[in-house]
Structure formats: structure tokens, C-alpha cells
Design brief:
heterodimer, A: 177 residues, alpha+beta, 4-stranded antiparallel β-sheet, 3-stranded antiparallel β-sheet, 3 helices, 29% strand, elongated, B: 200 residues, two-stranded antiparallel ribbon, 4 helices, 32% helix, 12% strand, flat
């Protein structure tokens, strides 16, 4: 019979990446990093008593993604607009339909890219979180955004400090009779 | 204590003074000027260099280790209750266990504290059940395969442990099951349609 899993509470800030969706969860004595690909879920555990430091580095990835999305989105949308306007000026029906078909292909792609740009801007700057334990430094895959990381920096430290205060108070071994 | 009382910058690797993170405000790395925030905890200052566990030889009328009868028991396993010495004691999460319990837990995924990964039966059933339906009727020849797969995944995983933090998510298994059955019905309907069968 398997034992009941510990109760987990969601911590702020998730992230989507090439490797799937990652989220942090808080249990009574550890932080669980769960990376899910929809088919499988992989776990990393960081015990509260072992966590030495948590560093958050603001990265430029979000800005670069925004610039690329803006260039591609505006390019596609602009191309579609030009094709529609150009099609209006062409008198030959076949060429006009051809231009509008191309505009129908570029337009939705541009709209999708601009929507992704708005979502990216709404989510805010990106970051990289590094957790230090006795075993070394581990780059967390979540939170991927600075806003989530800042909320994590507010929410998590009290739990870590409470766990480490409890460890400092307890004897290293509880002798049996 | 750590050998060098500094934290490496995640960007350039230069050592940063831990005291800079004490007030929680953002700072710039003095070397690469990267914006940093962080928190340093008491464990950073704690001396927990791994030492050698030394068992104590058992004296007369003293409890002995289950695995090393010559050693004095230091504690009892929190799972099976066996007495173990300091050599055998393994700290898993917040529990101190004996090697046999850890080994059994690793083999059968019985200890949630050491499960490294899990197959998500319910989520897989949901994925295999819904994606072909979303792809549209043009994917109907595949419905016989994906429909059966969704039903298999939903039923097979019904009693299996699901995601560690999110639980079994039986609603996903139910939706996957229904979608799988729907795919089979659609597939049968399309086969009848293509073969020219009419109810009349």
C-alpha cells in the first residue's frame, strides 16, 4: 500500500518552456519543482532546512522576445495591409484575388504574433531563479517572470526560516531507549 | 561554514556578499551590472560539512541495530520501527528511515518523498481523447487507435497514483474516457457512411 502524498500548496509563478510546464509547490518540509509534459511529470525536491539562498536574476529574454514578436507581427500585418490596398488598385481580377489570398495568409499570422506580443508584455520581464543548497546551485525552471519571482521571494522565506529555526533547535539524534 | 562566504552571481559567476541580499531589495552585480534580488537563509552560515557516521558498539543489555547486531541502536525507523545504528539511518524528507524501507519505497514508488517522476494517466487520457477530436473529422481514420488508447489510459490509471502535487485528477480521466468512446462512435459511423450503409 503506498503512503499518502504530502499536502502541497501552489507557490506563485509558473513557467512554460520547451520542456513543458513547470510549477513550484510547497510541502511541509520541502519545495517541489514539478515539470510536466502532459504525459509525465518530473520532480526536484529542495528541503527547506537545506536551502541556503535564493537568487533572482532579471534577464533580457522577455525584451528580446518582445522585439522579435513586434518585428514579425508588424511585418506580417503590414504586408497583409499592403496586399489588401494593392489588390484594390489592381484591375485584373486574378491578380487581385491572388493578393487577397496572400493577405489572408499573412494577416492572421500577424494578428497571432501581435497577440503573443501583448501577452508577453502583460506578463512582464523575465528572470532566472537559482536556488543554493549544500549540494550546489540549481537553476529553477519556474518562476520564469520577475513578478512571480518577487512574489515567491515574499512568500517562501518565512517558511524556510521557520524550518531552519526548528532544525537548529532539535538535537542531532534522538536516542532510543 | 562554506569555504568562501560569497554567492556566485547567476550571470557572471563573481562572488557576491550575502549581506547585500539581507534587505530583499534589488541590487546590481558589481561586475556584470545584472539586476539581482534574493534572500540568504541561516543554512548558508551553518556548518553542515558531511562527516563520517560512526556507529557505537553495543554494550550489554543495549538495543542493537537490526542490520548490524554489533552496533548500538541510535534510533528507530519511522516507517517499520526497526532499530538502526547511525550507519544505517537515512534521512528522507523529514523522516528517518532504515535502508530496507528506502529500498522498498524506491522499488514500488511507495514513498512519495523519493518519487522522481510519474506517468500522468489521467492527463494522457485527456490528451489522447481530446486532441484528435479537436483536429477535426479529417482525422477520423485514427479514431479507432486514439479512442481505444484514451479508454485504456483512463481505465488503467483509475487507481494508479497521479500527479504528486495535484492528485489523481479523475475528472480528466472521465473526460478522456468519454472522448475516447465518442471517437469510437464517430469512427464506426464514418465506416458505415463510407461503406454506403443506410438505416433504411
Amino acid at each position: 500500500m503506498s503512503e499518502p502524498a504530502p499536502a502541497y500548496r501552489k507557490l506563485p509563478g509558473g513557467a512554460f518552456g520547451m520542456g513543458g510546464r513547470t510549477r513550484l509547490w510547497l510541502a511541509q518540509d520541502h519545495v517541489l519543482e514539478a515539470n510536466s509534459t502532459m504525459l509525465t511529470e518530473r520532480y526536484h525536491r529542495f528541503f527547506l532546512r537545506d536551502i541556503r539562498a535564493l537568487l533572482v536574476l532579471r534577464t533580457k529574454a522577455g525584451r528580446v522576445i518582445s522585439i522579435l514578436l513586434a518585428i514579425a507581427g508588424l511585418g506580417c500585418s503590414g504586408a497583409a495591409a499592403l496586399m489588401i490596398l494593392g489588390g484594390l488598385r489592381i484591375e485584373e481580377t486574378e491578380a487581385r484575388v491572388g493578393m487577397w489570398v496572400l493577405a489572408g495568409m499573412f494577416g492572421p499570422v500577424g494578428l497571432v504574433l501581435l497577440t503573443l506580443l501583448i501577452i508577453n508584455l502583460f506578463l512582464g520581464p523575465t528572470c532566472r531563479c537559482v536556488i543554493h543548497t549544500g549540494a550546489g546551485a540549481h537553476t529553477l525552471q519556474a518562476p520564469g517572470r520577475l513578478r512571480g519571482a518577487q512574489r515567491l521571494l515574499v512568500e517562501l522565506p518565512p517558511h524556510i526560516e521557520a524550518a531552519q529555526a526548528a532544525v537548529a533547535a532539535e538535537p542531532s539524534f534522538a536516542p532510543t531507549r | 561554514m562554506p569555504d568562501v562566504l560569497s554567492l556566485p552571481c547567476p550571470h557572471c559567476g563573481i562572488g557576491l556578499a550575502p549581506a547585500a541580499f539581507s534587505d530583499g531589495v534589488a541590487m546590481l552585480c558589481p561586475s556584470c551590472r545584472s539586476p539581482l534580488q534574493g534572500a540568504v537563509f541561516p543554512a548558508f552560515w551553518r556548518d553542515d560539512a558531511p562527516g563520517v557516521s560512526r556507529a557505537v558498539r553495543a554494550g550489554e543489555a543495549e538495543a542493537t541495530c537490526f542490520f548490524h547486531p554489533q552496533n548500538r541502536a541510535a534510533l528507530s525507523c519511522e516507517r517499520c520501527g526497526r532499530f538502526v545504528c547511525q550507519v544505517c539511518e537515512l534521512t528522507i524528507g523529514s523522516r528517518r528511515l532504515c535502508p530496507a524501507c528506502v529500498s522498498a519505497g524506491l522499488a514500488g514508488e511507495k514513498l512519495p518523498e523519493i518519487v522522481p517522476w510519474r506517468f500522468l494517466w489521467a492527463d494522457s487520457a485527456l490528451l489522447v481523447g481530446l486532441v484528435p477530436l479537436v483536429c477535426g473529422i479529417f482525422a477520423w481514420p485514427l479514431f479507432i487507435v486514439t479512442g481505444l488508447a484514451a479508454i485504456f489510459l483512463a481505465l488503467r490509471g483509475w487507481k494508479r497514483p497521479g500527479s504528486l502535487p495535484r492528485g489523481r485528477r479523475r475528472w480528466a480521466a472521465v473526460v478522456g474516457l468519454v472522448a475516447g468512446v465518442l471517437q469510437l462512435v464517430l469512427w464506426a459511423g464514418m465506416i458505415l457512411f463510407v461503406s454506403g450503409w443506410h438505416p433504411s
